[in-house]
Amino acid sequence: MTAAPLPHATILGYPRIGRRRELKRAVESFWAGRITEAQLIETASELRAATRARLVELGLPAAGGAVPESFSFYDQVLDATLALSAIPERFAGATGSDLGTYFTLARGDEQHQPLEMTKWFDTNYHYSVPEIDERTPFAANPAQLLTQLAEAAEAGIESRPVLVGPVTYLLLAKAADGAADGFDPVDRLDEVTAVYAEILSALAAAGATWVQLDEPALVSDSLRTSREDTLALVERAYAVLGAASTAGEAPARPQILITAPYGDSSRALARLGALPVEAVQADLVRGTLPAAALADGSLARAFAGTQLVAGVVDGRNIWRTDLRAAFATLTTLAEAGVETVVGTSNSLQHVPHDVADEQKLDARLKSWLAFADQKVAQVAVLARGLAEGAASIEEDLAEVDRVLADRAAAPGVRIDDIRSQVAAAGDADRNRASEEDRREAQRGLGIPQLATTTIGSFPQTGEIRKARSAFVKGEIDEQAYEGFLEAEIERVIRLQEEIGLDVLVHGEAERNDMVQYFAELLDGFAVTEHGWVQSYGSRATRPSILWGDVSRPAPMTVRWSAFAQSLTERPVKGMLTGPVTILAWSFVRDDQPLGDTASQVALALRGEIADLVDAGITIVQVDEPALRELLPLDRERQAAYLDWSVGSFRLATGGAAPEVQIHTHLCYSEFGEIIDAVDGLDADVTSIEAARSRMDVVEPLGNHGYSRGIGPGVYDIHSPRVPGVDEQTELIRIAAARIPGEQLWVNPDCGLKTRGYDETVASLTNLVLAAKAVRAGA
Ligand code: MET
Ligand SMILES: [Zn+2]
């Protein structure tokens, strides 16, 4: 047994933006110069104090390292960059306080492009990508970790510092621009490990008894290394880190907990247990236990002297845990002789704070839910059961049994009519006319070569937001609000005509968010008041809750699209969000396969497309920006995913007549991996992000012999910079060299809702001129 074992209950991390998004407000005020750095630091410290106190109140022991220090001013990967002092050379001029440098890396400034952001594993959270080359300096800077540890100690809490582990850190990094060809950041693992060792020794000197090092790279097949190689890298790094003493002799370290959230680590688990660390966490929601190793005792032998933190409480969704099932898993482990701690599958950073804050949710629905605070309490209950026996928690288990039974039987959860419609949908409903027939039928649309268009949204101005909030608050009536939106749509249509775009959009002014807008109009969804979840930095989204069978009581977009089309001779694209993206950016029911839920959403969208077409719309775009994000990290699960995700898109769009042109939009550029799936969507035209990578996507498309319409973005909408005519012409040419002109569309990378009008008009004007230049062969 370890010298000072972890108590029976812990979590991997907790939301850090604050119950009322206090951190967002403080950080943004600091950026705007309204508060000082000292004030920001003070607010952050108060938030951390509140979190620790809350966690203890909810049942995590104050002693023994059960309370994680998972706070971050912006992002946990960026925190590791600072802890390693791994500031890319291109930021050399950007010196300041630690926090100043930190925010410059995150957000850039006049002289510096920010670090790139990308999605964290299969979540909708974005991290700042480290840039490493052969010369990146590494030096231990544990200041932030030490501050937190000292704060906790002062409050009488023995907390557990948290840091992204060395292997995951380097595998999530990219080679900096100046690195030699073939350089991989992970080449520097030994040096980085040495710096981690120094950080650990500083933590031990400051009295830390535990440290948590997150290694989700262990569960992913989507990184540069194979899983087997990742495991070997982890073994190499932790052999070094584990060699230090936990008993205080130099070199000293705290006890180490390695975590493997977001997926299945079962194949690696016995080897992880054998590492010279004191605890290993496994995600037992996404993952499983290695049944054979459990049965033959080898898991228990590998874990002799090592605790297993069993991630049985789901940190990715908002449903109350089936405590009886979770307890059975814990019992299996304990009976097999594995020293077990109850934990969450991953950090609770992906769920909102507290169900109790929701005043407007239906009471019955509310009783089925668990946000972060409720999940911590569930962990505590299970831990009590583990320590004191099943009988001690029987009442809690029975209560959850009742809640789950109530949920299963509640009206709206299963609607026969919807289920039989889904069951009746067959292959024929997922197949349109042949590509050729459609191309022929769509000639009537009169679309030119290198047709210009946008992705859908136009700038969401202050006036739009003001009008929406006035309407929500009842300050203006529906008629006034709709009049405002019509005027806005008319303005956007005229503007596009003046700029000379070929295929127009209505601008999406009526949408607060591309998923929530539909969730509010579909049956089967609920929206929260305070269910904010960090998306990146100071940004948060409020995912809707998909709790029941989904249907469409009335048309959702027809009014706006038809109005826009009535104003112009040019085609206006109808604009819908696809089933996969609606699921990915909501909290989804966990009582049936995702594919079943996706089919219901697809049928609702299919009805909407039919109504749009009846109203005279000839082109419909169904956005699927999350198609790549939901791709399972585990290769073995990818085929099944692609099957249902592609199938649901085809069910949504499969009823469209050949002369209706179906578009889709994806926004990421790591495209090679899913190119077959994109082909499988069978959309007539696909727009995709490409400007930032300077058209990297056209190469795989060309090699693939892609035959459909494709619009690789020529204008990076992530920054206010206006790309010139020459620059966009150049990008179109790069694409035209690989893709025939009649297939090629010209469009920005993504929607324009976060942009201002001046830059939008200038950039789109240049885009149209660039398309003309290439058409003219100039
Ligand atoms: C994140 S993809 C966004 C697509 C949407 N139609 C828009 O233009 O905003
Ligand atoms: Zn997009």
From TrEMBL:
<feature type="binding site">
    <location>
        <begin position="455"/>
        <end position="457"/>
    </location>
    <ligand>
        <name>L-methionine</name>
    </ligand>
</feature>
<feature type="binding site">
    <location>
        <position position="665"/>
    </location>
    <ligand>
        <name>Zn(2+)</name>
    </ligand>
</feature>
<keyword id="KW-0486">Methionine biosynthesis</keyword>
<feature type="binding site">
    <location>
        <position position="623"/>
    </location>
    <ligand>
        <name>L-homocysteine</name>
    </ligand>
</feature>
<keyword id="KW-0677">Repeat</keyword>
<dbReference type="GO" id="GO:0003871">
    <property type="term" value="F:5-methyltetrahydropteroyltriglutamate-homocysteine S-methyltransferase activity"/>
</dbReference>
<dbReference type="GO" id="GO:0009086">
    <property type="term" value="P:methionine biosynthetic process"/>
</dbReference>
<keyword id="KW-0862">Zinc</keyword>
<comment type="function">
    <text>Catalyzes the transfer of a methyl group from 5-methyltetrahydrofolate to homocysteine resulting in methionine formation.</text>
</comment>
<feature type="domain" description="Cobalamin-independent methionine synthase MetE N-terminal">
    <location>
        <begin position="9"/>
        <end position="335"/>
    </location>
</feature>
<feature type="binding site">
    <location>
        <position position="750"/>
    </location>
    <ligand>
        <name>Zn(2+)</name>
    </ligand>
</feature>
<keyword id="KW-0808">Transferase</keyword>
<comment type="pathway">
    <text>Amino-acid biosynthesis; L-methionine biosynthesis via de novo pathway; L-methionine from L-homocysteine (MetE route): step 1/1.</text>
</comment>
<feature type="domain" description="Cobalamin-independent methionine synthase MetE C-terminal/archaeal">
    <location>
        <begin position="450"/>
        <end position="772"/>
    </location>
</feature>
<feature type="active site" description="Proton donor">
    <location>
        <position position="718"/>
    </location>
</feature>
<protein>
    <recommendedName>
        <fullName>5-methyltetrahydropteroyltriglutamate--homocysteine S-methyltransferase</fullName>
        <ecNumber>2.1.1.14</ecNumber>
    </recommendedName>
</protein>
<feature type="binding site">
    <location>
        <position position="124"/>
    </location>
    <ligand>
        <name>5-methyltetrahydropteroyltri-L-glutamate</name>
    </ligand>
</feature>
<dbReference type="Pfam" id="PF08267">
    <property type="entry name" value="Meth_synt_1"/>
</dbReference>
<keyword id="KW-0028">Amino-acid biosynthesis</keyword>
<feature type="binding site">
    <location>
        <begin position="455"/>
        <end position="457"/>
    </location>
    <ligand>
        <name>L-homocysteine</name>
    </ligand>
</feature>
<keyword id="KW-0489">Methyltransferase</keyword>
<feature type="binding site">
    <location>
        <position position="508"/>
    </location>
    <ligand>
        <name>L-methionine</name>
    </ligand>
</feature>
<feature type="binding site">
    <location>
        <position position="689"/>
    </location>
    <ligand>
        <name>Zn(2+)</name>
    </ligand>
</feature>
<dbReference type="InterPro" id="IPR013215">
    <property type="entry name" value="Cbl-indep_Met_Synth_N"/>
</dbReference>
<comment type="similarity">
    <text>Belongs to the vitamin-B12 independent methionine synthase family.</text>
</comment>
<dbReference type="Pfam" id="PF01717">
    <property type="entry name" value="Meth_synt_2"/>
</dbReference>
<dbReference type="GO" id="GO:0032259">
    <property type="term" value="P:methylation"/>
</dbReference>
<keyword id="KW-0479">Metal-binding</keyword>
<feature type="binding site">
    <location>
        <position position="623"/>
    </location>
    <ligand>
        <name>L-methionine</name>
    </ligand>
</feature>
<dbReference type="InterPro" id="IPR006276">
    <property type="entry name" value="Cobalamin-indep_Met_synthase"/>
</dbReference>
<dbReference type="GO" id="GO:0008270">
    <property type="term" value="F:zinc ion binding"/>
</dbReference>
<feature type="binding site">
    <location>
        <position position="585"/>
    </location>
    <ligand>
        <name>5-methyltetrahydropteroyltri-L-glutamate</name>
    </ligand>
</feature>
<dbReference type="InterPro" id="IPR038071">
    <property type="entry name" value="UROD/MetE-like_sf"/>
</dbReference>
<feature type="binding site">
    <location>
        <position position="24"/>
    </location>
    <ligand>
        <name>5-methyltetrahydropteroyltri-L-glutamate</name>
    </ligand>
</feature>
<dbReference type="InterPro" id="IPR002629">
    <property type="entry name" value="Met_Synth_C/arc"/>
</dbReference>
<feature type="binding site">
    <location>
        <position position="667"/>
    </location>
    <ligand>
        <name>Zn(2+)</name>
    </ligand>
</feature>
